[in-house]
Specification:
about 350 residues, alpha/beta, five-stranded mixed sheet, 11 helices, elongated
């Protein structure tokens, strides 16, 4: 994190809450400065260590350090969440699809989807069964579902998903496609293999279902076209894995087991790390929350704002959209068209 970004966070929190303002105690002794409180919080997030590691360097006690961390994460979410944890708008989707089509050769691609698990060390014994991850071990976990390119665009944090907390059960509890089902999401259209599709998709691994909103790899490809498609899909899907890796390397607190007692605090810590990750990416790349179209040329993918209607969407329309997102025949058609599209684009090069 650069000095300018750190000071931006410090000044924002100082102006937002009196806890991060400089004060004196009842007998006039100076208290902790905003820089001390923010530094001890960020160091705990970055190194994943206990608060007593910084008591001599920053002159902050163990209890005060934990309090600083909790208040820091909560205020970061409140102050920056609307900007750095928002869903992509129609313009964002348009730029994302153009970028992915130019870089990866996948028209209509919105990103890559996956889940990351964070072990909950101090989960109460009575709750352990409902927070257990089925394939990441028997420890209670918090699950982060995200769609990523370089920044984590769409995020959901879950506790207590019914059954084994694998990607399928998390998806069944997800609100990822809620706006699309209600008709509030961007209207997306793209052309692949000469056929027009009306739904954007995310790259996913093999555990995800055969829905037209997911473009999966081929486990045992046969033929040059399928082998090329599988290689391209797996290469592009690593964006979300890299994003999780960078998140854990920057904020070691989410790499080790969570030592907090309360779910709300754990969620605030994870969200604060995602927000600051996105802020760092924005500063390094120059345009993340407000995309700038650098690539020249036309794109076969378009995204427009949803049409505003006078009457609310009926329940029947919601069920119809939900059914269309789960149509396996449309998924098969999408796979066929994308295999041919990737093969054709590769031969042109």
């Amino acid at each position: 994190m650069s000095r300018d970004l750190f000071l931006r966070i410090v000044h924002t929190l100082e102006a937002r809450d009196e806890y991060f303002q400089y004060r004196e105690d009842g007998i006039g002794r100076p208290g902790l400065t905003p820089l001390q409180k923010c530094t001890v919080a960020i160091r705990q997030l970055a190194y994943g260590t206990t608060t007593d590691m910084f008591d001599e360097y920053l002159h902050v006690g163990d209890t005060t350090g934990r309090e600083c961390l909790k208040n820091f994460c909560k205020l970061v979410v409140e102050a920056f969440g609307d900007t750095y944890l928002r869903r992509p708008t129609a313009d964002d989707c348009q730029s994302l699809m153009r970028m992915h089509e130019t870089v990866h050769g996948f028209p209509g691609m919105l990103g890559s989807i996956d889940c990351m698990h964070w072990q909950w060390k101090n989960c109460p014994t009575a709750w352990r069964g409902q927070f257990t991850s089925g394939y990441k071990g028997s420890h209670p976990t918090m699950i982060l579902e995200a769609v990523a390119d370089h920044r984590l665009w769409i995020w959901h944090a879950y506790f207590g998903v019914a059954g084994s907390n694998n990607d399928i059960n998390v998806l069944n509890s997800s609100t990822l496609f809620a706006d699309q089902c209600r008709g509030r999401g961007p209207a997306i259209q793209f052309t692949a293999n000469g056929r027009t599709h009306h739904m954007g998709y995310y790259l996913a691994d093999g555990i995800y279902p055969r829905w037209p909103v997911f473009l999966k790899t081929i486990s045992c490809p046969i033929g040059e076209r399928r082998v090329l498609f599988a290689a391209k899909q797996e290469s592009a899907r690593k964006d979300v894995e890299r994003a999780f890796g960078v998140l854990q390397s920057r904020w070691a607190i989410v790499k080790g087991p969570a030592r907090f007692w309360y779910k709300e605090v754990i969620a605030d810590v994870m969200y604060a790390c995602i927000i600051m990750h996105n802020m760092i990416v924005e500063q390094e790349r120059g345009h993340v929350t407000n995309w700038v179209d650098d690539e020249a040329g036309s794109s076969s993918s378009t995204a427009t704002s949803p049409v505003t209607r006078g009457l609310p969407t009926g329940f029947g329309a919601v069920l119809e959209r939900q059914a269309s997102m789960r149509n396996q025949q449309d998924h098969t058609q999408l796979m066929t068209d994308m295999i041919e599209e990737v093969w054709t684009r590769n031969r042109r090069r």
